[in-house]
Amino acid sequence: MLLDNISLKPNYFEIFMKCSPDTFAVSNLTKQSKMKTRVIMAGFLACIGITGMAQDTQKEEPKGKAIVQVFGNIHADIDADAYSVGFQLDRSYLGYEYNLGNGLSVKGVMDIGKSSDVSDYQRIAYIKNAMVSWKKGRLTLNGGLISSTQFNFQEKFWGYRYIMKSFQDEYKFGNSADLGISVAYKFADWVSADAIIVNGEGYKKIQVNNGFNYGLGLTLTPVKGFQIRLYGSYNDSGIENTEGIVNMTAFAGYKHDKFTIGAEYNYMMNASYKADCDQSGYSVFASVNLPKDISLYARFDDLYSKDDWNITKDERAAILGAQFKLGKYVKIAPNFRMSMPKANGADNGYSAYINCYFGF
Could you give the CA distance from residue 300 to residue 266 in angstroms, rounded to a whole number? Predict the structure, then answer.
């Protein structure tokens, strides 16, 4: 008899008492001994059944899922001096997430893309996430190579990461992932807070300096669909005669089944750890969901620097396009983009893209 498969039923003892003593190899015992044996075995099996039921109610079966995301496009860039067209594989994320049960999970993700430090078109693979998470009630803890909390919220609200990065990621106000720990707590349905401590040098570099990046965030949901996000961080360089980087962000957005609208303002002090090299800017975006898995989206960014110290990269940028969902895993998004540099004499740039996404 396999005890592991026994569960406690209402008629369990009745069935058991009708069992032959031979079932338990006690046929040579006296009738009284046989009855005692039955009682002892019944109590033993009942304990096993109760224990099994308790374990079934508390134990969460482990389960995992693959992470596959591929961003690509075909584009045509038009400016005053040249014209270029071609296919491009922007980025690929490959990984796996496994739920160990009892709120504990692990995730590993590889990021395959082009490095800004390499002048050719070779693909370079990085470890984007190698983390452990634990969720218990309203509390969430993350450790390892984790996602940054600086602009992760805005990126998800924008919802078109495969087409264009969110403002802070696009203009290098911070890193999307880093090595460290983070904690988040939901005090009520309308307010939650989070804190993070990471190296401050991103996931593409090893820890070189002794400084850390400290961040605090607050998320408010006054009414359903409307959310406000406030965030501040201090990135200590750990090097003498340099200034720490200060980031401050305010975001507000409203998400409805039919449309989404959002706006954010960002201010960064001492960019690249250099005193008075401040940058700021804002981004506004909107999208509308149409029937048959079609949506329209638009966005406008404005980046500027204190006293024009970074005028060669300061710009206004706009994007307008549509998205078509081809089933559950594929998206295609044609769009038109315009870049308006602020440097004197710089010409506007125009480009047409068809962005593609595959993922699950």
Answer: 14
Q: Which listed CATH number (3.40.50.2300, 2.40.160.10, 1.10.238.10, 1.10.10.10) goes with 60-359?
A: 2.40.160.10
Q: Is 332 helix (H, G, I), strand (E, B) or coil?
A: strand
Residues of the chain with pLDDT under 50: 1-57
pLDDT digits (tens, 9 = 90+) for 47-66: 434 334 444 445 566 689 99
What secondary structure letter does DSSP report for 354?
E
| Domain edges within the chain | 3-57, 60-359
Longest dimension (CA), the chain: 108
Q: How far apart are CA 148 and CA 213, in angstroms?
A: 10
- Among 237, 136, 131, 244, smallest CA distance to 180 is for 131
SS3 for 360?
coil
Token representation of residue 68: 């596959």
Question: What are the backbone angles phi and psi of residue 12, rounded to the nearest 5°?
Answer: -60, -45
Taking the C-alpha atoms of residue 39 and residue 264, their distance in angstroms, rounded to an integer, is 71
Name the pTM for this structure: 0.80
Q: How far apart are CA 42 and CA 19, in angstroms?
A: 11
Sign (positive or negative) of CA dihedral 138, 143, 147, 150:
positive
User: What are the beta bridge partners of residue 214?
Assistant: 197, 234
CB 325 within 8 Å of CB 293: yes
* Beta bridge partners of residue 95, listed in sequence order: 67, 109
Contacting residues for 328 by C-beta, under 8 A, at least 6 apart: 360
Q: Are 20 and 37 in contact (CB under 8 A)?
A: no
Determine the Cα angle at 219 with ends 214 and 220, to 5°.
155
